[in-house]
User: Fold this.
Amino acid sequence: MQKPNQRLPPLDLLAAFEAAARHLSFTRAGAERFVTQSAMSRQIRALEEDLGVALFRRRHRALALTDDGRRLHAVCADVLAQLREAVGQIRAPARREVLALSTTPGLASLWLIPRLPLFTKAHPGIDVRLDASLELRDLRGDGFDLAIRYGRVGQTEGAQLFREAMQPVCSPQLRKRGGGPPLRTPADLRAHTLLQVASTPDSGMPLEWALWLRAVGLPDLEPAAMLSFSGYGETVAAALAGQGVALGRRPLVDALLRRRQLVAPFKDAPASMRAYYLVVEPLARARPAVRSLEQWLLAQAAGEE
Assistant:
Protein backbone atom coordinates (compact mmCIF):
# COMPACT_ATOMS: atom_id res chain seq x y z
CA MET A 1 0.00 0.00 0.00
CA GLN A 2 1.32 3.45 -0.96
CA LYS A 3 2.44 5.57 1.98
CA PRO A 4 1.04 9.13 2.20
CA ASN A 5 4.46 10.72 1.69
CA GLN A 6 4.96 8.67 -1.51
CA ARG A 7 2.02 10.31 -3.27
CA LEU A 8 3.23 11.77 -6.55
CA PRO A 9 2.61 15.44 -7.30
CA PRO A 10 0.97 16.26 -10.66
CA LEU A 11 3.22 14.98 -13.45
CA ASP A 12 3.00 18.24 -15.41
CA LEU A 13 4.59 20.01 -12.45
CA LEU A 14 7.44 17.49 -12.43
CA ALA A 15 7.98 18.01 -16.15
CA ALA A 16 8.02 21.78 -15.63
CA PHE A 17 10.50 21.40 -12.78
CA GLU A 18 12.82 19.24 -14.91
CA ALA A 19 12.92 21.92 -17.60
CA ALA A 20 13.53 24.73 -15.09
CA ALA A 21 16.27 22.74 -13.33
CA ARG A 22 17.96 21.92 -16.65
CA HIS A 23 17.97 25.53 -17.86
CA LEU A 24 18.27 27.17 -14.42
CA SER A 25 15.94 29.76 -15.91
CA PHE A 26 12.17 30.06 -15.66
CA THR A 27 12.17 32.15 -18.85
CA ARG A 28 13.97 29.55 -21.02
CA ALA A 29 12.03 26.68 -19.44
CA GLY A 30 8.77 28.50 -20.11
CA ALA A 31 9.72 29.06 -23.75
CA GLU A 32 10.49 25.36 -24.12
CA ARG A 33 7.10 24.40 -22.65
CA PHE A 34 5.19 27.22 -24.40
CA VAL A 35 4.17 29.04 -21.21
CA THR A 36 5.12 32.43 -19.84
CA GLN A 37 7.87 32.98 -17.29
CA SER A 38 5.30 33.85 -14.63
CA ALA A 39 3.28 30.70 -15.37
CA MET A 40 6.43 28.61 -15.04
CA SER A 41 7.24 30.31 -11.73
CA ARG A 42 3.73 29.54 -10.44
CA GLN A 43 4.09 25.87 -11.41
CA ILE A 44 7.37 25.60 -9.50
CA ARG A 45 5.80 27.29 -6.47
CA ALA A 46 2.92 24.82 -6.61
CA LEU A 47 5.34 21.88 -6.71
CA GLU A 48 7.35 23.25 -3.77
CA GLU A 49 4.13 23.71 -1.77
CA ASP A 50 3.05 20.16 -2.62
CA LEU A 51 6.41 18.76 -1.46
CA GLY A 52 6.85 21.14 1.45
CA VAL A 53 10.46 21.97 0.54
CA ALA A 54 12.30 24.59 -1.50
CA LEU A 55 13.71 23.27 -4.77
CA PHE A 56 15.44 26.45 -5.94
CA ARG A 57 17.43 29.24 -4.33
CA ARG A 58 16.25 32.39 -6.05
CA ARG A 59 19.10 34.84 -6.46
CA HIS A 60 19.30 38.15 -8.30
CA ARG A 61 18.82 37.19 -11.97
CA ALA A 62 19.92 33.63 -11.23
CA LEU A 63 18.57 30.31 -9.99
CA ALA A 64 20.38 27.54 -8.12
CA LEU A 65 19.10 24.15 -7.07
CA THR A 66 18.88 23.22 -3.41
CA ASP A 67 20.07 19.80 -2.28
CA ASP A 68 16.48 18.52 -2.54
CA GLY A 69 16.20 20.12 -5.97
CA ARG A 70 19.36 18.41 -7.24
CA ARG A 71 18.14 15.05 -5.96
CA LEU A 72 14.73 15.42 -7.60
CA HIS A 73 16.20 16.70 -10.87
CA ALA A 74 18.52 13.70 -11.24
CA VAL A 75 15.55 11.34 -10.92
CA CYS A 76 13.21 13.38 -13.14
CA ALA A 77 15.78 13.70 -15.94
CA ASP A 78 16.44 9.96 -15.93
CA VAL A 79 12.76 8.96 -15.82
CA LEU A 80 11.74 11.38 -18.58
CA ALA A 81 14.60 10.17 -20.79
CA GLN A 82 13.44 6.57 -20.28
CA LEU A 83 9.87 7.58 -21.12
CA ARG A 84 11.00 9.26 -24.36
CA GLU A 85 12.96 6.17 -25.34
CA ALA A 86 10.06 3.80 -24.58
CA VAL A 87 7.57 5.96 -26.48
CA GLY A 88 9.94 6.10 -29.44
CA GLN A 89 10.22 2.34 -29.51
CA ILE A 90 6.48 1.60 -29.31
CA ARG A 91 5.17 4.43 -31.48
CA ALA A 92 3.37 3.14 -34.57
CA PRO A 93 5.98 2.44 -37.29
CA ALA A 94 3.76 3.88 -40.02
CA ARG A 95 4.48 7.38 -38.75
CA ARG A 96 7.42 9.34 -40.12
CA GLU A 97 10.50 9.18 -37.94
CA VAL A 98 11.99 12.48 -36.81
CA LEU A 99 15.65 12.71 -35.80
CA ALA A 100 16.74 15.62 -33.60
CA LEU A 101 20.19 17.02 -34.43
CA SER A 102 21.91 19.94 -32.68
CA THR A 103 24.84 21.91 -34.08
CA THR A 104 26.32 25.40 -34.32
CA PRO A 105 24.59 28.07 -36.45
CA GLY A 106 27.63 28.49 -38.72
CA LEU A 107 27.97 24.81 -39.57
CA ALA A 108 24.21 24.49 -39.97
CA SER A 109 23.80 27.32 -42.47
CA LEU A 110 27.00 26.92 -44.47
CA TRP A 111 27.73 23.19 -44.45
CA LEU A 112 24.83 21.05 -43.24
CA ILE A 113 21.65 22.65 -44.60
CA PRO A 114 22.84 22.61 -48.25
CA ARG A 115 23.53 18.88 -47.90
CA LEU A 116 20.46 17.73 -45.95
CA PRO A 117 18.21 17.28 -49.05
CA LEU A 118 20.62 14.53 -50.16
CA PHE A 119 19.95 12.64 -46.92
CA THR A 120 16.17 13.03 -46.94
CA LYS A 121 16.01 12.01 -50.60
CA ALA A 122 18.05 8.87 -49.90
CA HIS A 123 16.07 8.06 -46.73
CA PRO A 124 12.33 8.60 -47.36
CA GLY A 125 10.29 8.51 -44.17
CA ILE A 126 13.07 10.07 -42.06
CA ASP A 127 12.87 13.76 -41.22
CA VAL A 128 15.54 15.83 -39.47
CA ARG A 129 14.74 18.46 -36.84
CA LEU A 130 17.72 20.80 -36.76
CA ASP A 131 18.62 22.88 -33.70
CA ALA A 132 21.21 25.56 -34.55
CA SER A 133 22.57 27.01 -31.32
CA LEU A 134 25.83 27.79 -29.55
CA GLU A 135 24.32 26.34 -26.38
CA LEU A 136 25.75 22.93 -25.47
CA ARG A 137 22.72 20.63 -25.45
CA ASP A 138 22.33 17.70 -23.08
CA LEU A 139 21.42 15.07 -25.68
CA ARG A 140 19.50 12.74 -23.41
CA GLY A 141 17.96 15.38 -21.18
CA ASP A 142 16.97 17.69 -24.05
CA GLY A 143 15.69 14.92 -26.32
CA PHE A 144 18.36 15.04 -29.06
CA ASP A 145 19.64 12.04 -30.99
CA LEU A 146 22.88 13.52 -32.37
CA ALA A 147 25.00 16.67 -32.15
CA ILE A 148 27.84 18.14 -34.17
CA ARG A 149 29.99 20.11 -31.75
CA TYR A 150 32.77 22.62 -32.25
CA GLY A 151 35.62 22.30 -29.79
CA ARG A 152 39.30 22.00 -29.08
CA VAL A 153 41.20 19.14 -30.66
CA GLY A 154 41.81 16.37 -28.15
CA GLN A 155 39.45 17.88 -25.58
CA THR A 156 36.05 17.35 -27.22
CA GLU A 157 33.84 14.27 -27.03
CA GLY A 158 32.84 12.42 -30.20
CA ALA A 159 34.17 11.29 -33.57
CA GLN A 160 36.12 14.03 -35.36
CA LEU A 161 34.46 15.05 -38.61
CA PHE A 162 37.07 17.52 -39.82
CA ARG A 163 39.67 19.98 -38.58
CA GLU A 164 39.18 23.67 -39.15
CA ALA A 165 41.51 25.87 -41.21
CA MET A 166 41.25 29.65 -40.98
CA GLN A 167 41.79 31.67 -44.17
CA PRO A 168 40.85 35.29 -44.97
CA VAL A 169 38.12 35.56 -47.61
CA CYS A 170 36.36 38.43 -49.34
CA SER A 171 34.14 39.14 -52.32
CA PRO A 172 35.86 39.20 -55.76
CA GLN A 173 34.65 42.80 -56.17
CA LEU A 174 36.48 43.93 -53.04
CA ARG A 175 39.73 42.42 -54.24
CA LYS A 176 39.39 43.90 -57.75
CA ARG A 177 38.00 47.30 -56.71
CA GLY A 178 39.76 49.86 -58.88
CA GLY A 179 41.58 52.58 -57.02
CA GLY A 180 41.06 50.84 -53.69
CA PRO A 181 43.78 49.66 -51.33
CA PRO A 182 45.64 46.53 -52.50
CA LEU A 183 45.02 43.11 -50.97
CA ARG A 184 48.01 41.03 -51.99
CA THR A 185 49.69 40.18 -48.67
CA PRO A 186 48.43 39.85 -45.07
CA ALA A 187 50.08 43.19 -44.24
CA ASP A 188 47.64 44.88 -46.67
CA LEU A 189 44.83 44.15 -44.18
CA ARG A 190 45.87 47.39 -42.43
CA ALA A 191 43.89 49.30 -45.06
CA HIS A 192 40.77 47.12 -44.92
CA THR A 193 37.77 46.46 -42.68
CA LEU A 194 37.94 43.12 -40.86
CA LEU A 195 34.71 41.22 -40.20
CA GLN A 196 34.38 38.97 -37.17
CA VAL A 197 32.02 37.19 -34.78
CA ALA A 198 31.58 39.11 -31.54
CA SER A 199 32.94 37.06 -28.66
CA THR A 200 30.80 36.48 -25.58
CA PRO A 201 32.05 35.26 -22.19
CA ASP A 202 30.28 31.89 -22.42
CA SER A 203 30.39 31.17 -26.17
CA GLY A 204 33.70 29.30 -26.14
CA MET A 205 34.55 30.87 -29.52
CA PRO A 206 38.11 32.06 -30.13
CA LEU A 207 39.19 35.63 -30.86
CA GLU A 208 39.57 34.74 -34.50
CA TRP A 209 41.59 37.54 -36.08
CA ALA A 210 43.99 37.87 -33.17
CA LEU A 211 44.89 34.17 -33.44
CA TRP A 212 45.27 34.25 -37.23
CA LEU A 213 47.38 37.42 -37.27
CA ARG A 214 49.63 35.97 -34.59
CA ALA A 215 50.02 32.81 -36.68
CA VAL A 216 51.21 34.80 -39.74
CA GLY A 217 53.58 36.98 -37.73
CA LEU A 218 51.47 40.18 -37.58
CA PRO A 219 50.20 40.25 -33.97
CA ASP A 220 50.19 44.08 -33.80
CA LEU A 221 48.37 44.77 -37.08
CA GLU A 222 45.66 47.45 -36.75
CA PRO A 223 42.97 47.32 -39.48
CA ALA A 224 41.18 50.34 -40.90
CA ALA A 225 38.01 49.22 -39.08
CA MET A 226 36.34 46.23 -37.45
CA LEU A 227 32.74 45.07 -37.88
CA SER A 228 31.41 42.50 -35.41
CA PHE A 229 28.34 40.28 -35.79
CA SER A 230 26.40 38.01 -33.48
CA GLY A 231 26.85 34.91 -35.66
CA TYR A 232 29.18 33.46 -38.26
CA GLY A 233 26.45 33.36 -40.93
CA GLU A 234 26.06 37.15 -40.68
CA THR A 235 29.84 37.58 -40.88
CA VAL A 236 29.97 35.61 -44.13
CA ALA A 237 26.98 37.52 -45.50
CA ALA A 238 28.83 40.79 -44.88
CA ALA A 239 31.86 39.42 -46.75
CA LEU A 240 29.63 38.40 -49.67
CA ALA A 241 28.26 41.94 -49.73
CA GLY A 242 31.77 43.37 -50.05
CA GLN A 243 31.81 45.03 -46.63
CA GLY A 244 35.26 43.73 -45.69
CA VAL A 245 37.46 40.69 -45.15
CA ALA A 246 36.25 37.78 -43.02
CA LEU A 247 38.13 34.80 -41.66
CA GLY A 248 36.84 31.85 -43.64
CA ARG A 249 36.40 28.70 -41.60
CA ARG A 250 37.23 25.94 -43.99
CA PRO A 251 35.56 23.70 -45.00
CA LEU A 252 32.44 25.72 -44.09
CA VAL A 253 33.11 28.30 -46.81
CA ASP A 254 34.55 25.90 -49.40
CA ALA A 255 31.35 25.83 -51.49
CA LEU A 256 31.37 29.64 -51.71
CA LEU A 257 35.03 29.56 -52.77
CA ARG A 258 34.33 26.94 -55.44
CA ARG A 259 31.53 29.10 -56.86
CA ARG A 260 33.81 32.17 -56.74
CA GLN A 261 31.29 34.01 -54.58
CA LEU A 262 34.21 34.44 -52.20
CA VAL A 263 37.93 34.45 -52.95
CA ALA A 264 40.96 33.82 -50.75
CA PRO A 265 43.46 36.64 -51.40
CA PHE A 266 46.32 34.85 -49.60
CA LYS A 267 47.53 31.27 -49.93
CA ASP A 268 48.19 30.52 -46.27
CA ALA A 269 45.41 28.78 -44.32
CA PRO A 270 46.73 27.97 -40.84
CA ALA A 271 44.91 25.09 -39.16
CA SER A 272 43.24 26.06 -35.90
CA MET A 273 43.26 24.00 -32.73
CA ARG A 274 39.54 23.36 -33.14
CA ALA A 275 37.48 20.83 -35.05
CA TYR A 276 33.92 19.56 -35.48
CA TYR A 277 32.88 16.37 -33.68
CA LEU A 278 29.88 14.08 -34.07
CA VAL A 279 28.24 12.85 -30.86
CA VAL A 280 25.42 10.26 -30.78
CA GLU A 281 23.20 9.73 -27.75
CA PRO A 282 23.99 6.11 -26.68
CA LEU A 283 20.38 4.90 -26.40
CA ALA A 284 19.43 6.58 -29.69
CA ARG A 285 22.12 4.68 -31.59
CA ALA A 286 19.98 1.52 -31.27
CA ARG A 287 17.58 3.03 -33.84
CA PRO A 288 18.44 2.26 -37.49
CA ALA A 289 17.45 5.77 -38.60
CA VAL A 290 19.95 7.34 -36.19
CA ARG A 291 22.71 5.06 -37.40
CA SER A 292 21.85 5.98 -40.99
CA LEU A 293 22.23 9.70 -40.26
CA GLU A 294 25.44 9.08 -38.32
CA GLN A 295 27.03 7.14 -41.21
CA TRP A 296 25.83 9.72 -43.73
CA LEU A 297 27.39 12.58 -41.77
CA LEU A 298 30.68 10.71 -41.45
CA ALA A 299 30.69 10.03 -45.21
CA GLN A 300 29.94 13.68 -46.00
CA ALA A 301 32.80 14.80 -43.75
CA ALA A 302 35.17 12.28 -45.31
CA GLY A 303 34.54 13.96 -48.66
CA GLU A 304 36.05 17.18 -47.25
CA GLU A 305 39.44 15.59 -46.60
